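Narrative summary of target 7.
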Amino acid sequence: MTVGYFGVGLLVASKLTATVRQPTERTPADEGLDSQEVTFQSTDGLDLKGWWVPGEDSTRVVALVHGLEGSKVGEHILATAFVYSRAGYGVLMFDLTARFTVVDLSDGIRHARSSPGHLRR
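Modeled conformation, tokenized:
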């Protein structure tokens, strides 16, 4: 019986004191892309953070948005950004907030096409 209590106590102590290893955040540079960190506002006034990868043709822009439990650092987002960037597109990747957020990208994309400096760094 004592061994059982000791075992449970050891298990609980190890779980409570063990460090949680967080995966290293990937960036567009990991895919060989030059990018700028950007911030813009959602329609409800929240700051959204992301990356802007300028394209060869300012008339072609794509916005990549992660799924429900994803983020802009997801391998699928970064791999897709690489494909679009190599095809000459400007690529905007950003993280949504934890709650449902309506995002109007038309102004951000319009200004990014003409001047990537418009998006706040």
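Confidence is low (pLDDT under 50) at residues 116-121.
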